[in-house]
Input
Amino acid sequence: MVESPATPAPAGPPVTVLAPVAPARPISSYSVAPARARPTGIGELDRVLGGGLVPGAVVLLAGEPGVGKSTLLLDVAQHWAAGAGRAVGGPGGDGSGCDEDPGPALVISAEESVNQVRLRAERIGALHPRLYLAAETDLAAVLGQLDAVKPGLLVLDSVQTVSAPGVDGVPGGVTQVRAVTAALVSLAKQRGIAVMLVGHVTKDGHVAGPRVLEHLVDVVLHFEGDRHSSLRLVRGLKNRFGPADEVGCFEMHEGGITGLPDPSGRFLNRHAEPVPGTCVTVAMEGRRALVTEVQALKGAAVPGSPRRTVSGLDPARLAMVLAVLQRCRPRIRLHDHEVFAATVGGIRVVEPAADLALALAVASSALDLGIAADLVAFGEVGLTGEIRRVSAVSRRLAEAARLGFRSALVPAGCGRSATGGVPDGLVVHEVADLGQALDLAARS
Output
């Protein structure tokens, strides 16, 4: 017997070697001009996209019905048609002409008639001769419109209502959505067309359709907003050309939708004198610091299980903060009283960094003691009452100082570790536990 190495079994059928479509070249020989983003003309959207729309990129914008997706994309198409896509600066270092005409904009409406879209365009001032409009529900007809118009931007509203001929399934089904999206992605890459797709969401707030839909596109944006509030947020969930954690703020009104480059003041109620039950915190939405006011109210005593009602906050965090607060301050009776907590301006704050401000607001209401109007507080409250460190301390402090706040309560160690130091005019108090924070807030 002779020992010999085992012969590996073939992994599958033999693969036929084919000639490549284009030979490989040194990476430095490729031009970067086709990958340069073209601004949409809407600053807040460009912020989320990472500078604008990249030719050949496919963007999926998902959101609940009636939140304003169609209005926003119609405004984007109008700016593109007016020439916003050309404003990308001078020629690049590779000699490419960056100011070339990117082509007109084409809006394909698969849910509304052209007359309905025309009425909305007139209301928001989106009438431009280089903005084309068509109503199609068949993918072949959509491709025919592309051949006729030759646009630089295609807006399809929505991808779930377009059907591909020769593909099984009903429009909106897994097979149809996958086929339509794959065809548009392939076409966008071949022709260098920026494509923006409107997508629906499920009851849980996730993008409807197969999960592969999010993998096929280059950018996934989520459009958030409450119908009872004019505030709208565009949150980046995936971005191959920029940061995936940016947030853009918009305001919805009768004349359309406009960006809010400085939305912090919107989430504050400026008070001349301290008001019990209020405390200001600095929340992080993506990379953006937003100064937000948290309000709380201790209601009447109720036998049994009192209500815990929140608006814009996490109910679980409120329940935990109430338990810790009553343990640290036994004279603050909360277990048999109703407690209401809310944010100002329609913003939703769910990060643990708002725990400290929430605890101070509840204590202020329970003790009928106002907190200084120029004080901000942020930090995570632990179950033993300790104040834990949070991220982006420097950006939070800088935003608070910019809006005129003069003192801040931060977790221990955060003030010394802030990048660039503490802003001028802002006094930082480091607190190790909730009891220390309550004492400092009462003396402020």
